[in-house]
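Quick one, tokens below:
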């Protein structure tokens, strides 16, 4: 079966599947009872094509707009511009001077001429009643007026579907429709022959069963939809920094209004259409909107920023002009939201299983119907009444047809692919509580198979709460962990050195010191920037004062490839000065001078270089992040178009930043090791710091090696083959190094790789990995969009929890498939063999519908929602080549099926003699006994299926309330059906002895299942047998001691 599934359904991958692969498997699944339900949680390919068409249209529009704006710029200065634009009365009464459509046409059309007519950026700001410096006023009345005139920053979504919609979809099941027709015919013929109500019993029994199946199915599907709705809401939580009422604050992008001043940084998503106000080195990636991969530079000459695009480099302030469905991004998102998630490989494989078993079931159903009809003809031939057909004969034929259709109902396991969705929805909801937001369904499955995790250091293995604890300036090295020690350090270094240090800290930064709504000083920025700014404030510096002293001409933001950040200042006394900071050894290599102990610039001699290198090494050995700060005087000639030079610097000093290892990381790494998952640290930090942290976390062992990115890059393919399995730490790595490592692990070594990332440059590695894990706190929007799972607390322990849940999902679905295949096999063989050998089917249509519900919806609820346990992380990972339907599953399915078939067959052939049934109702009692025994076999098999390999299946059973509730309901309704609904379900009340035998036969399946688990399978037979034997001895120990 696995070969069949891989050949026909194996093309669909966990991510980045081709459209052809997605279409191909749909065509192969032609035997479907209910297309709406089966394909509900699969991608809507037509909507995807529609979204792609919108992207192509946007690309063409923007290309034309750019050409027109370029042409307009050439003539704009020569023209006497005048406007024929009239402000709509409603807009004017609201206190604004420009309408939403006019704003939209300016930005979306890149209309330079219109922008100039409206007075440029300043004119637009005035007409929007906002301030470029302080933002909009937040009085409730003004905010409401803005919303009324310009709309809100939300896109149209399809309305949530109510419960009745799911009822209607459940009714679309083709086999249920056929059974409904059978029920109608049965009612008409039955009432005509036997009158009301006796003649209506069979028909009403089928109708009641259909309604019960529909109601239970719809309830389950509706609850799933609510869970997905909650998760979608969480996925859309994106915040931005804005200035409102002269206060810097964070708000949701959905609360943005035209006139807001938004602060954008590298990796951010542009949250609305708007105009560039100020900024440096801004590159915008418009591929998500237009499909165009070439980034566009945003500046005063090209100020148009479009919603949904990404800041690839630089930082800027933006004036929001257009929001929501008035933007092209809003229209695109409205279409994409209907496109759905890609189906997961397990969903596709189980669709294949359902199709294959469905074909077998259809064949058995046709043969069963033919055999039953042939038996009827034979009997009538013997009686000589083959030309005389009565209503009873018609009813019997109808019953045969209903049994055949019901065999198809039971045989086509529609619940298999839907069990995946149910299990994933349950897991995703629970994972949200464990601080992991799953963006793509397939990530849950894949994470359970992961064999290696490539983790960042900063913020994932460490707390990301950084503090400057040591500093070396002007030859003075001291601890500076608190305000007193920092003040002492500040007084110990020369004033000139302190002055240039503060200028470097407060100007060469991506952070800011602001006053928040509570009128308190707040430091904004990354943890590294925050630590440095806090250090500057403790030294007695004033952020605003330093900023006002000089003018920033150019900024090169920190780049993980260059490992540095630079800024050019225009000094008040004339001339330009460059400040640079970054990886200590890289910045130090660019220096040829140093600020000495007297605060004077002196040549950087070998003794000074050795002292600084020793300081870096000493700091790194203490697991501190080291940064070097330097500056360069570049005279009076500098153009902001020129790159920042990178040689001839003067070293200001070195700071050591403490970022403690997160509590519980060492234990989590140990859990991964016991689970067969290799953890590798990939970091941009100094190799000594990386090794110290890796040893503390338990990542770097005696057998493993640590390597630097530049050295890794130089290795040949042959050397990499030997080297990569041993790599446990990669320091000073670039995003390309991470991507190369991930690619080799996936392709050459066939590993299932999970990768963490937080920066814009991590996007290629996150995309390449089997599972991309973005950081929720430190991660940029670009990283989050490329990821499959967002770790909301940036904690490595959460990644281990995701792996545990992934394994739980995989195992739960295997358990459900094992359970359902057993019911399928037994129900098919029993009805088919009985029809062939005895001329009648022991299980009626109503009874088979009830069995179908037990194994389908209720079985999925019970087994697919089992929470994870710690034992899951003691197994080896499935990896890339593991078979989903394993040998262990086949052993359990075939063994249990054989037992159940023997029980049913024994009752059918010897039941009357054993129970001394000889009255007119003997057949009815026997068939009820068979039905009851069969159901209780499934009940106890469901318990046995809780663990496919361990004998003790009761461990933690009472903690799984869903499982207990499902079993209780199944037993309760079985009693009701047998004892009180006999006229509708073709059953009769049983004696207590018969009840005991039915339950006993079901219970006997459990020791049979335990015995089966002791039979070694082909893979790992000795280990499996040893594990079972140890467990058996352990469980018997208390009894033996007693």
């Amino acid at each position: 079966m696995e070969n069949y599934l891989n050949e026909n359904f194996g093309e669909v991958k966990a991510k980045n599947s081709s459209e052809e692969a997605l279409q191909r498997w749909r065509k192969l699944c032609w035997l479907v009872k209910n297309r709406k339900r089966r394909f509900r949680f699969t991608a809507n390919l037509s909507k995807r094509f529609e979204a792609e068409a919108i992207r192509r249209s946007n690309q063409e529009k923007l290309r034309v707009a750019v050409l027109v704006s370029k042409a307009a710029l050439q003539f704009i200065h020569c023209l006497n511009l005048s406007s024929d634009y009239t402000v709509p009365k409603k807009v004017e009464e609201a206190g604004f001077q420009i309408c939403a459509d006019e704003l939209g046409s300016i930005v979306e059309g890149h209309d330079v001429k219109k922008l100039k007519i409206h007075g440029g950026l300043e004119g637009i700001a005035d007409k929007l009643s906002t301030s470029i410096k302080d933002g909009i006023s937040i009085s409730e009345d003004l905010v409401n007026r803005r919303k009324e005139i310009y709309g809100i920053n939300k896109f149209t979504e399809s309305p949530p579907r109510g419960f009745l919609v799911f009822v209607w979809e459940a009714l679309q099941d083709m086999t249920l429709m056929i059974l409904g027709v059978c029920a109608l015919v049965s009612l008409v013929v039955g009432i005509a022959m036997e009158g009301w109500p006796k003649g209506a019993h069979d028909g009403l029994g089928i109708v009641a069963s259909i309604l019960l199946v529909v109601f239970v199915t719809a309830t389950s599907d509706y609850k799933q939809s609510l869970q997905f709705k909650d998760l979608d809401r969480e996925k859309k939580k994106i915040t931005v920094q804005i200035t409102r009422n002269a206060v810097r604050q964070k708000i949701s992008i959905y609360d943005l209004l035209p006139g807001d001043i938004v602060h954008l940084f590298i990796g951010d998503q542009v949250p609305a259409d708007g105009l560039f106000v100020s900024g440096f080195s801004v590159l915008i990636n418009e591929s998500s909107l237009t499909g165009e991969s070439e980034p566009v530079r945003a500046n005063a000459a090209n100020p148009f920023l479009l919603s949904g695009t990404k800041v690839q480099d630089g930082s800027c302030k933006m004036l929001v002009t257009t929001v929501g469905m008035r933007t092209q991004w809003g229209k695109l998102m409205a279409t994409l939201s209907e496109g759905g998630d890609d189906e997961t490989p397990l969903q596709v494989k189980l669709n294949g299983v359902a199709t294959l078993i469905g074909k077998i079931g259809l064949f058995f159903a046709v043969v069963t119907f033919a055999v039953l009809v042939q038996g009827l003809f034979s009997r009538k031939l013997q009686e000589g009444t083959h030309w005389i057909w009565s209503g009873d004969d018609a009813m019997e034929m109808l019953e045969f047809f209903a049994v055949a259709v019901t065999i198809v109902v039971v045989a086509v396991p529609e619940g298999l692919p839907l069990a995946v969705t149910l299990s994933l929805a349950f897991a995703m909801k629970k994972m949200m509580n464990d601080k992991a937001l799953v963006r793509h369904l397939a990530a849950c499955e894949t994470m359970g198979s992961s064999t290696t995790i490539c983790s960042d250091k900063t913020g994932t293995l460490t707390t990301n709460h950084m503090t400057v604890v040591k500093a070396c300036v002007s030859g003075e090295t001291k601890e500076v962990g608190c305000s007193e020690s920092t003040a002492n350090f500040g007084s110990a270094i020369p004033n000139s050195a302190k002055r240039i240090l503060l200028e470097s800290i407060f100007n060469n930064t991506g952070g800011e010191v602001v006053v928040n709504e509570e009128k308190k000083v707040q430091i904004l920025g990354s943890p590294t920037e925050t630590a440095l700014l806090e250090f500057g404030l403790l030294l007695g510096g004033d952020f605003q004062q330093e900023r006002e002293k000089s003018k920033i001409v150019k900024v090169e933001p920190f780049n993980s490839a260059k490992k540095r950040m630079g800024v050019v200042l225009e000094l008040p006394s004339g001339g330009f000065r460059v400040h640079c900071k970054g990886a200590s050894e890289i910045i130090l290599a660019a220096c040829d001078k140093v600020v000495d102990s007297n605060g004077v610039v002196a040549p950087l001699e070998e003794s000074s270089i050795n002292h600084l290198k020793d300081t870096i090494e000493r700091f790194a050995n203490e697991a501190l992040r080291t940064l070097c700060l330097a500056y360069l005087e570049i005279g009076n000639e500098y153009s902001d178009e020129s790159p920042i030079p990178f040689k001839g610097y003067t070293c200001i000093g070195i700071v050591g930043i403490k970022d403690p290892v997160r509590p519980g990381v060492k234990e989590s790494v140990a859990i991964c090791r016991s689970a067969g998952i290799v953890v590798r640290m990939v970091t941009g930090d100094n190799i000594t710091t990386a090794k110290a942290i890796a040893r503390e976390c338990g990542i770097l062992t005696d057998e493993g090696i640590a390597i630097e990115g530049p050295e890794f890059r130089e290795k040949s393919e042959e050397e990499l083959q030997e080297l990569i399995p041993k790599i446990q730490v990669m320091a000073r790595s670039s995003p390309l190094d991470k991507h190369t490592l991930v690619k080799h692990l996936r392709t050459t070594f066939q590993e299932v790789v999970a990768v963490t990332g937080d920066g814009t440059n991590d996007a290629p590695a996150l995309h390449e990995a089997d599972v991309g894990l973005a950081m929720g706190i430190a991660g940029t929007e670009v990283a989050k969009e490329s990821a499959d799972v967002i770790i909301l607390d940036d904690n490595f322990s959460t990644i281990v929890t995701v792996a545990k849940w992934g394994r739980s999902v995989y195992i739960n679905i295997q358990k459900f498939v094992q359970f359902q295949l057993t019911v399928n096999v037994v129900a098919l063989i029993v009805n088919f063999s009985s029809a062939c050998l005895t001329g009648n089917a022991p299980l009626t249509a109503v009874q088979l519908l009830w069995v179908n519900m037990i194994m389908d919806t209720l079985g999925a609820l019970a087994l697919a929602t089992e929470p994870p346990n710690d034992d899951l992380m003691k197994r080896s990972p499935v990896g890339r080549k593991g078979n989903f339907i394993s040998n262990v599953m086949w052993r359990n399915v075939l063994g249990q099926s054989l037992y159940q078939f023997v029980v049913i067959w024994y009752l059918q052939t010897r039941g009357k003699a054993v129970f001394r049934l000889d009255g007119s109702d003997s057949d009815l009692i026997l068939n009820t006994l068979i039905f009851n025994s069969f159901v209780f076999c499934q009940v106890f098999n469901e318990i046995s299926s809780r663990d496919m390999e361990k004998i003790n299946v009761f461990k933690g059973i009472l903690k799984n309330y869903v499982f207990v509730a499902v079993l209780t309901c199944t037993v309760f309704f079985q009693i009701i059906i047998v004892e009180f609904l006999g006229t509708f379900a073709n059953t009769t009340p049983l004696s207590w002895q018969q009840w005991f035998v039915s339950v006993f036969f079901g219970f006997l399946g459990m020791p049979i299942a335990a015995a089966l688990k002791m039979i070694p399978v082909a893979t790992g037979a000795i280990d499996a047998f040893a594990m079972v034997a140890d467990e058996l001895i352990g469980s018997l120990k208390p009894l033996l001691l007693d």
